[in-house]
Amino acid sequence: MGPLARYVGDEQEFHRTLWRRTPAVLHPRTPLTEMLTVAELDRILDAGLLTTPYATLVHEDGPVPEERYCSPRVVLGGIDNRYVDAKAVRRLIGEEGATLLLRYVDQWHAGVRELADGLAECFQRQVEAFFFLTPPGTQGRPVHRDDADVLAVQMHGSKRWRVYPGPPDGNWQPERVDGDPGDPLLDVVLRQGEVLYVPRGFAHVAEATGESASAHLSFTVREAGSAHLYAVLEALLLGGDGLPARPNDDAALTGATNDLITHFRRTLTSLTPQELVRLARGAMRREQHTGEGSLSALLGRSGCEEEVER
């Protein structure tokens, strides 16, 4: 079973009926709830290596000030204030209903990274992962729009999601939606093992329900925007043979200009809209994480055994 099929079931049906069209709850046959458990999260917090902005606390009305859950440390003779204090995090979650938000989990958790990379291959787009731990009866963010399609995997507990229509045109911003968002397209309680698909730009809000905290992992599928198209096209146009930095006379300057225009025309003539979109999406995708051996392999088996014997 491919990475996307594990979340959405029939991939062709997903792209034909849901992708960029409508939100929906999906019911995987093999729920993916063990990739990052709350118990593992406790161990990660207690290890003491999480820093902001990878880990932050938020309320519905905004972020919790970092000084309330970060402790200063002396590192290489300097003060570093970014390290997250596990005790303070648990206190703010329990006493004030703060939501723990873990950003870019794919960058620092091997299991989540493998899943995100698999989805990136399926979508041929950049995929990132975010983890939310929300106390019961609270919501971590207001109604908002994301600049990504979202696959939210309910890992623990339950969460009520309300999803509203998408933006009216392409000039929208990924931000808080003020005022009345109207009637929701989808109003559903997501339970452990279920997956919610939210199309890009569709406004949504989520609230933890039940007696226990809710934990979900969101895979965000990023799409290229106008800025990415401009950047890639600029790179293509400026990536030809280098022109002389300071042509010596009018004839040399005119010749250099002619070469530049010729390069632009040749590049634009051979470039199709579909190819530019493909290149923009590819430029967004981060380099794949590949395992180039291991520390054990570098040390050699005999070296490891020798260390154990000591």
TrEMBL record:
Region annotation Disordered: where it falls in the sequence: 285-310
Domain JmjC, residue spans: 96-236
Swiss-Prot/TrEMBL cofactor(s): Fe(2+)
UniProt-listed SUPFAM superfamilies: Clavaminate synthase-like
Pfam family name, one: JmjC_2
Protein keywords: Iron, Metal-binding
Name used for this protein in its record: JmjC domain-containing protein
Species this protein is from: Streptomyces sanglieri
